[in-house]
Amino acid sequence: MANPRKPFRLNVGFLINAPIGYNRDFDYFIPQYTDDDLAVTDLDGVINIGCTPQGLLVRGKFTGSTTLECVRCLSDYQQILEWEFTELYAFKEENITESGLMVPEDAQLELQALLREFALLEIPLKPICREDCKGLCTECGQNLNEKDCGHRPEIDSPFQILKELFKNQPGE
What we know:
By secondary structure, this protein is mainly beta. It has helices spanning about 15, 110-120, 160-165; strands at about 10, 25-35, 40-50, 55-70, 75-90, 110.
């Protein structure tokens, strides 16, 4: 069972001797989850642990929301995160996978670090609050999503002179 103070530490002793193919779901809903560098609201998900001949197969599927700062307008916004993971906790050293996970002798799986790593992978490198975000004015710093300051960026193009010539043509 999950410990309320450490919800991602699971006692899986009953699964170690379970028949092959047996699995169990652990459902989660945590209104406010905070780790070192991650804060997620409405963390919702399920961890399924199944018994295989090699070890315990741990599969998780989670959703939640975190506050990020938009790289264009520097405003905070809520980003929806959705992530899944599958890892094998081996019974014996010869069954260890690339992740290097083994079932501990005390049968207490600590899944918090695993959950955190996969959640952090879902955070965009350049978070943008919305696709049509206009960003900040390069001259005065006004958030252009809130109001137009009237400044226009200078167009530095060799074809700008041609555009000016065609603008003064009648009938165009």
